[in-house]
Structure formats: structure tokens, C-alpha cells
Write a structure and sequence with these properties.
Shape: elongated
Mean pLDDT: 89
Number of strands: 10
Number of helices: 41
Helix content: 55-70%
CATH class of the domain at 613-781: Alpha Beta
CATH superfamily of the domain at 613-781: Beta Polymerase, domain 2
CATH topology of the domain at 613-781: Beta Polymerase, domain 2
Strand content: 5-15%
Length: 934
């Protein structure tokens, strides 16, 4: 790029406060002309520091400014190529030369607008990285040469023998300001040393750290490189300047504080052993990014802001003289805290929010609806403008200052450097600080100004007056937050078509909440969730009651992937397995399985309620969730059991899903029908510390699995389980051997048991045995069956079901021509046709393909089943039990109509009655026919 093209990119220019000094600066580089010369004059005539740099590096800058990007890259490469054995005096001088050059280049590109803010701060951060690594490498090399780092050789110099420097704060984010110190944490990888050598290594690294910091920060005739600050390390008053990663990890796990979590948002490995540094940061992920939303971080950050202001004497009304543009009211730190606190709250669940840069974080938060887009735009623009003012304050005299001038003369000098009129600049800064304060203060400390009370009818007031007595509002903190929310809640309630009905349902939700601080803080930070809650409680009271008992599932709504496409059974199982693998003990694994499943269960319900998925899709998703939960938890149970009694003898065991679980069609309130089958394969005993006979082993393993699924832990139970479909029912053993299962199904099983087998599906367990059981199931179904006997037994079962569960007009499951009736005949069709498919629609189609059902009969049964299933799925989501359309409210009835694609409840009632009557007629006719010939 030529000087002309550099000039063509200039978008702004400083003005010389001292014209003579400006002319003197321009005389240093006489070959620069036009706007580039004006830039030199403005910079040198307003900023004494820049004037000195121009004079000292005139030959270099006159060429470098032609292509600043290449000049920067060359200077960084020159520093990186300095040999580790370079004399320290020479090394220090070269580092300082690089600092002068990059500071001058970045300053001019900043003042001219040729580089945007992120490129300016990025150049300064890159310089810090390269100079820190070069200094550290040189001093570690000397410790290696002296034998002070046992076992380390010349080959270990480039990785600094396992020592890493973590860049923190703005340096870590690549946002280093113009005259900043650099916040560093120095650690070493103790695993590279034998235990007996670690204290010697520690001493060597401490020496290298101190000398490397001196190489960077000591003021010499050549200046300095960077002031260094090592006080962000754990407990700096008592810990050495460099210490072991293992010790640091233990510190953060045990006593790490919120401000340290916030600091590590921006942390990155910047020098030394980058691989070891990255691995260390990954070990801190659970400390920094907590899995569950922690709104206490808001209050802690607010308290920290107030302490900073008090300590620095920055409180009181906003005035520009001596105002701290970084720490003061409406300053840079306000915006950084605003972004970082929300990142801490949500970043544990949403990895997309774990960016280091402030502007990037604001954009990510807006993309995920944590903040409004206009708030993002305001804060991004104001942050950029604040940082540019900060840079110019520091360019004046290379001081690490963030305070605006105290005299009119210095304000004029600053305005000249910014290329602005003084009064316009003052007004701009004042307006910007006030705006930032207004936006951020409402998040950290919502206004205490009392808004006018919302008028309520007597009926509504009767409901809302009870709320203060509920357990969720027993703490003072909960009351404070809820008082701020109540007005917004009432406004939203009164905007509903049936406010009293919605308020009554919300009352039930609040009454069931055991605690409220976290949830109310969540609502305050995400007001859109109030609408979701009102929608849920108004439409689906059962889901509302579920939510009041498990309010933590709302974490998932704002976790970043709540509305992403359904991942499928295998991905769910892998995710849960990863979650359980991180659990510290068995009990925690059970808790984590429940917490995880509840979030996904809630997601399915919300998606169905909002019409994002159909009843059929919801049925499959509930089944995917149950199958993944059982499969992942089964592995945990087996591992824990094996620690006591040895690995499963023989080929292991499996869980066979029966009924709706096997058919891939569950509702929001389904329990799970399961059978456990094992194959000891001739092995009589397990081989663990406490060996068991194989039969006893699998019986107790099955009991352990049932307990793991059904036990009430701190997070509730996972599922209810029904094992009655196993061979011999309640009287049979809880686990059945493969040989017994095969023999029983071949020789003793009733027709209804073969019908049940048409819906069986392996959901967990040993792959080899699973394949064998599935192959046996297919072979059994495809064996020629006595069609007349199947028809007779199916008819008899229909009769007995009708007597035991006659159903009612609004019961989609029981009764002639309804779900259970159609499912039974679909199973018969599959058994007669030898169809291995478990899904009811596929089974009905097999009856049609076999010639057992006519096309019109198939269509009637399929249509009726789809209608009754939709009604069943919706009813279980709405009530969790039997359906009474008069008791579910207007919104619930509207959801029923949407789900079943009907215009009114009356029309739905008629349609159900007519469809089930038509289906019953088809079933009667089909089962009364003569057998179909093969």
C-alpha cells in the first residue's frame, strides 16, 4: 500500500494544539505529504508522547506507514525470531524498540481512523503476546542451562519448560488499551517434573518470572515495554509469582469467587507452553461456566461496582473534570460488567456466549435475546467511543490514566487530538456517560422509584393478595425482586382475553413454588419468560404444576438451543452419558439424570403447546427421551454394580421396552413398561469383590436399575416403571434369562403375550444380546400363527378390556373403537402378517398389505387412531390425567381444538363419537371374518 492509498483511508485527523511542535514533528519525516503530513502534525502537535516517538523512529515510520499491516507483522516476526540466548541487555533494547514502533504505528492508524478499534487493540495485544513470550523464553532458557529446571533440555526452551503465561483482562480479550499494563497469571505444569524435583522447578520458574517481568517493565533509557501486574493470581499476598497448575485448580474449585470467574471469561494462554495453558483453562470450565443459571452473580457484580466506586472516590454526580472514563459512572467498566455478568449467567449452558471480546459478547447476547438489539447497538457504539477517548488520554503522555482533564487547557488539547471542537466533545462524552449509566444501572440495580399502582378488580385483588403468603416469597430478597416484577406481571395478565382465569392459574403456579429468588431474578432479567409462564399456566395447568415443582427447567429456555431442531435418540443418549460421566458420585449421577431429563421433557411440552411439533412428533420425542435416559443410566448402574460384584457374567443384560415405550409413542404423563433379559452364557458366578450367582446377580442388578429410575432423589424421580409384562407377570423373576424367555415365548406364552411382543424394542444393554433378542422376536413373529386363535383371543381381550375399562365420551384411550381397541387389533394384524414393525401405523399397514384389512377399513382405523392419539397427547399435557373440557379453561379448550384440527369442542365431541363408532364397527367386522389364506 502506498502513502497515497494510506491517505485515502483516512477518515479523521487530529489538529495540532501546539502548531510549532506539530511542524517540528512533520520535519522529522519530510517525505510524507498531504493528509499523512497533516496526521503527523496533529499527532505530534497535541501529544508530547507521540512527538517523541515520531522523532525517535522517523526513518522507520516514514516507510512503515505506507503499509501498516505488513510493518506490524514484520516487527512482530522480528521479535519472535530473537534467539533465546540473546544477551539480556540487547534483548531488552530490542523489545523496547518494538514497543515504540508498534505504539507509534497503532496510534497514527487510530487517530486517522485507518484501523478500527479492534485492529488497534489487537495490534497492541499481539505485541504484548510476542514480547512476553520472547522475554519468558530467554529467562527460562537460562534456568535450563544452569540446570535449575530438572530434566528439561534445549528441546524444552520453546515451550518454556511447561510454564505458561495467561493473559487476563483486556490483554486476554485482545482489547489492550494504548498505555495499559498487562494483567498476567504465571503457572507451570508440575506433571513435567518428578515429585522430588517440583520444588526446585518451582524456584526456577519464580526466578524466570521475576526476570522476565523486569525485562518487560523496567524503565531504561530506551523506555519500557509493558508494565506487568501479577496480582490477579490466586491469593497474591501469600502465593509466589509462579506456581503449579494443580494448586491453582484446587484454589478455584474450593474458594474461587465471582470476580475471578468473570476474570477468566477473557483469559487465554498468551506465552510459554500454549498447549498446557489451554488444557488448564479447559479444566476451569466448570468453575467459570456453571451449568445452571446463577443470578446471584448480578448482585455480587453490583456490589463490586459500588466498592470500586467508593474505593476510587468515584461516587456522586457526574461531572467531566477528572471523571474516570473507565471506572466512573457510565464508563467502560459499566459496559464490560454488563456483558460479563450476563455471560456468567448464561454461558454455562450456551457455549456461543463464551467470547472474550466485549463487543462480540454484546452481539452474542443480542443474537440470543438476552438483550435488545438497540441496547446492543447503543452500548457497542458507546464502548467504542469511550475506548477511543481513553486511548487519546493515554497517547498524550504515555500515562496509564483513564481520567478526563481537570483544566480547560487540557480539555482543549484532548479535543485537538480527537479532531473535535472542545464543547462538542464535552457534550458528546457527557451524553454518552449518562446514556451508558441509564442502560446498565437498570440491570444491576433496578430503579426504586415507585410506579403508579395498577388498578385491579376486586376478584383479581383477592387472588393477588394471597401471593405474599406463599413459600416462594418468604425471603426478603424474593419479595424485593417480586415487588419489582408484580406491576409488569399484572399488566401482562390484564392484557389477556380472560385475565381472571389466567391469574387463577398463575396463583396455582406460585403456590406450588418451593422458593422464588432464582426464578424471579430470571424473570427480571428475561421478561419474555413471564409471557411463556402465563401461556403455560393458562393453557396447560398440568405443565404449570410440573414447572412449579421443577422451575430449574426454565434454564433451558434461555440456554441457546431450546428451539433448535430435535437432536434424536442417539445424540440425546450421548449428551446424557457425557453429563453422567462428569458426576462425582452415583447419587449425583441420579440427580443429574433427572435434572437433564426434566429440561428436555419440558422442552417437548412447550414445543407441543406452542404448535411447533405435532402430537405424533411429541410422542416420538418423549419416547426418544425415555429411551436415551434409560440407556445412559443403565450404563451407570452397571458400572456401579460391577464395582462391588464384578462385570456382568456372560453376555450381559438388556432392557426391552414394551407397550408405548416399545411402540415409540409416549405422552407427557406416561410410565414405562419394561422387561430385563440376561444371558449368563453358562457362567455361574460373577468375579467381583463380592461375587454373586448369575441369577441373583441379574435380579439384584435389575432391582438397582428400577431403583435408579424410580427413586425420589433431591431432583425427584425419573420415571414410573411397570414390569408386569415380563414372563409370568408379577409372579415371575424380575430378570428373565434369555433361554427362559425363548422357551416361554415358544411354548407357554399366551396369545396376548405374543401380541405385546409386536411392540417390544430394545432400549438399553449389551449389543450382542440385543441383536439376539431382536432376531428371536422377528423369527417368532414371522412364524406361521393360528389366525383363528388370534382372532378369537383378540376378541376375548377386547371384551375383557371393555368390561374393565368401559371408558367415557372424553376418554380417547378406553372404549370401543378407541386407542387401546385399535392398538390391540393392530398388534393382531402384525402378528398374523409377521410384521416386525412396532409402530401402530406400520402395523395397520401390514394388515392392509396382508389382505386382512380392506383399504377403507385401514383408512378408518388410521384416521380414528390419529384423532384419538391427538386428543390423548393433548389431554395428558393439559391435565396429566382424565380430560374434562369444562374444567381446563378457555385456553386449554383452544389448544384441544388446535391439536385435533376442529372448530369447536362440540364438533370435537361429535367427531370423536362418530369416528370411534366407525372404528368399532370395522374392528367387529374384521375380527368376525374367516381367516385369510396364506
Amino acid at each position: 500500500m502506498s502513502s497515497t492509498s494510506f491517505a485515502s483511508k483516512i477518515t479523521r485527523l487530529p489538529r495540532a494544539y501546539d502548531r510549532d511542535r506539530g511542524a517540528e514533528a512533520a520535519a522529522f519525516v519530510p517525505d510524507l505529504t498531504g493528509q499523512t503530513r497533516d496526521l503527523i502534525m496533529g499527532a505530534g502537535g497535541s501529544a508530547p508522547y507521540l512527538h517523541g516517538l515520531i522523532g525517535r523512529e522517523s526513518d522507520w515510520i516514514s516507510q512503515a506507514i505506507n503499509d501498516p499491516e505488513s510493518a506490524l507483522a514484520s516487527e512482530l516476526m522480528r521479535i519472535a525470531s530473537l534467539a533465546p540466548d540473546t544477551q539480556i541487555g540487547t534483548l531488552n533494547a530490542e523489545l523496547r524498540r518494538a514497543k515504540r514502533r508498534v505504539a507509534l504505528l497503532a496510534g497514527l492508524c487510530d487517530l486517522a481512523g485507518v484501523w478500527p478499534l479492534h485492529q488497534v487493540t489487537g495490534a497492541l495485544s499481539d505485541l504484548a503476546d510476542h514480547t512476553t513470550h520472547t522475554a519468558l523464553r530467554a529467562h527460562v532458557a537460562r534456568e535450563i542451562e544452569r540446570g535449575k529446571l530438572p530434566g528439561q533440555t534445549q528441546d524444552d526452551i520453546e515451550s518454556c519448560a511447561g510454564m505458561v503465561v495467561l493473559a487476563m483482562g483486556k490483554h486476554g480479550a485482545g482489547e489492550l488499551n494504548y498505555s495499559s499494563d498487562i494483567d498476567l497469571i504465571c503457572l507451570f505444569d508440575e506433571t513435567r517434573f518428578d515429585p522430588v524435583d517440583r520444588m526446585d522447578a518451582r524456584a526456577g520458574f519464580i526466578r524466570a518470572t521475576r526476570k522476565a517481568m523486569a525485562s518487560l517493565s523496567e524503565l531504561t533509557a530506551d523506555g519500557y515495554v509493558f508494565r506487568t501486574d501479577l496480582r490477579l493470581r490466586p491469593d497474591p499476598s501469600v502465593t509466589p509469582v509462579c506456581f503449579a497448575m494443580d494448586a491453582a485448580e484446587r484454589y478455584y474449585e474450593s474458594v474461587g469467587r465471582t470476580w475471578e470467574r468473570a476474570a477468566y471469561i477473557k483469559a487465554r494462554a498468551a506465552a510459554g507452553d500454549m498447549v498446557a495453558g489451554q488444557q488448564f483453562l479447559e479444566t476451569l470450565t466448570p468453575f467459570v461456566w456453571r451449568k445452571h443459571l446463577d443470578f446471584a452473580a448480578i448482585q455480587e457484580t453490583h456490589d463490586m461496582r459500588l466498592k470500586i466506586r467508593k474505593h476510587k472516590g468515584l461516587g456522586g454526580a457526574l461531572k467531566l473534570e477528572d471523571h474516570n472514563i473507565k471506572l466512573g459512572l457510565g464508563g467502560i467498566r459499566e459496559i464490560e460488567f454488563f456483558a460479563q455478568t450476563r455471560q456468567l449467567i448464561a454461558g454455562g449452558r450456551d457455549k456461543d456466549l463464551r467470547m472474550r471480546g466485549t463487543c462480540d459478547a454484546l452481539k452474542g447476547l443480542a443474537d440470543k435475546s438476552w438483550i435488545e438489539n438497540d441496547i446492543c447497538d447503543i452500548l457497542t457504539a458507546d464502548y467504542t467511543a469511550h475506548r477511543e477517548v481513553e486511548h487519546r488520554l493515554q497517547m498524550l503522555r504515555d500515562q496509564q490514566t483513564h481520567s478526563l482533564p481537570s483544566t480547560p487547557e487540557e480539555f482543549d488539547r484532548l479535543a485537538h487530538l480527537m479532531g473535535m471542537d472542545t464543547e462538542a466533545m464535552r457534550a458528546d462524552i457527557l451524553q454518552r456517560c449518562a446514556r451508558v449509566h441509564e442502560v446498565t444501572e437498570g440491570f444491576f440495580a433496578p430503579s426504586e422509584v415507585q410506579a403508579p399502582e395498577i388498578e385491579q378488580s376486586d376478584e383479581l385483588r383477592e387472588i393477588t393478595s394471597r401471593w405474599q403468603s406463599y413459600p416462594a416469597l418468604r425471603s426478603e430478597r424474593a419479595q424485593e425482586i417480586f415487588d419489582r416484577l408484580k406491576r409488569d406481571i399484572l399488566i401482562r395478565i390484564q392484557a389477556q382475553d380472560r385475565p381472571l382465569e389466567v391469574a387463577a392459574n398463575l396463583d396455582g403456579f406460585l403456590r406450588g413454588l418451593p422458593a422464588g429468588v432464582q426464578l424471579f431474578a430470571l424473570f427480571e432479567a428475561n421478561p419474555q419468560l413471564i409471557d411463556l409462564i402465563l401461556d403455560i399456566v393458562a393453557t396447560a395447568p398440568h405443565l404449570g404444576r410440573y414447572l412449579s415443582r421443577n422451575s430449574g427447567v426454565l434454564d433451558a429456555v434461555i440456554g441457546g438451543a431450546f428451539f433448535a431442531p430435535w437432536p434424536g435418540r442417539d445424540a440425546l443418549r450421548a449428551e446424557l452419558a457425557q453429563t453422567l460421566a462428569k458426576s462425582e458420585d452415583y447419587e449425583l449421577a441420579l440427580d443429574n439424570s433427572r435434572r437433564w431429563a426434566k429440561e428436555w421433557h419440558f422442552r417437548i411440552g412447550v414445543h407441543q403447546l406452542r404448535g411447533l411439533i405435532s402430537a405424533d412428533e411429541a410422542g416420538q420425542q418423549y419416547c426418544d427421551l425415555a429411551s436415551a435416559s434409560i440407556a445412559a443410566l443403565y450404563d451407570v448402574v452397571v458400572d456401579a454394580f460391577a464395582q462391588k460384584h464384578g462385570v456382568p457374567p456372560g453376555r450381559g443384560a438388556l432392557v426391552l421396552g414394551m407397550g408405548s415405550l416399545g411402540a415409540g409413542r409416549l405422552t407427557a404423563a406416561s410410565d414405562l413398561d419394561m422387561i430385563v433379559i440376561y444371558d449368563a452364557d453358562g457362567v455361574e458366578y460373577s468375579d467381583g469383590k463380592r461375587p454373586l450367582a448369575s441369577r441373583a446377580y441379574y435380579a439384584r442388578l435389575t432391582q438397582a436399575l428400577i431403583t435408579a429410575v424410580t427413586a425420589q432423589t433431591a431432583q425427584g424421580r425419573l420415571y414410573e416403571v411397570d414390569m408386569r409384562l415380563r414372563p409370568s407377570g408379577k409372579q415371575g423373576p424380575v430378570a428373565t434369562s434369555f433361554d427362559s424367555f425363548v422357551a416361554y415365548q415358544k411354548n407357554e406364552a399366551w396369545v396376548w403375550e405374543h401380541l405385546a411382543l409386536t411392540r417390544a424394542r430394545v432400549v438399553a444393554g449389551a449389543p450382542d444380546l440385543s441383536a439376539a433378542v431382536e432376531q428371536f422376536r422377528i423369527d417368532l413373529l414371522q412364524t406361521r400363527h393360528d389366525e383363528a386363535a388370534i382372532r378369537f383371543e383378540t376378541n376375548d381381550m377386547r371384551r375383557r378390556l371393555a368390561e374393565a375399562k368401559p371408558g367415557s365420551s372424553w376418554d380417547p384411550k378406553s372404549g370401543a373403537g378407541r386407542m387401546m381397541d385399535i392398538e390391540l387389533v393392530a398388534e393382531a394384524a402384525a402378528l398374523i402378517a409377521g410384521c416386525p414393525a412396532q409402530d401402530v401405523y406400520a402395523q395397520l399397514q401390514s394388515g392392509r398389505d396382508f389382505g386382512w384389512l380392506a383399504q377403507d377399513e385401514h383408512d378408518v382405523l388410521r384416521t380414528t387412531y390419529k384423532l384419538t392419539w391427538r386428543l390423548q397427547s393433548a389431554a395428558r399435557l393439559l391435565t396429566g390425567d382424565k380430560l374434562d373440557p369444562t374444567a381446563i379453561g378457555t385456553d386449554g379448550r383452544a389448544f384441544l381444538m388446535r391439536s385435533t384440527e376442529t372448530d369447536s369442542i362440540e364438533a370435537l365431541s361429535i367427531q370423536i363419537a362418530q369416528a370411534s363408532a366407525a372404528a368399532a364397527d370395522v374392528l367387529d367386522r374384521v375380527l368376525a371374518r374367516p381367516a385369510v389364506s396364506s
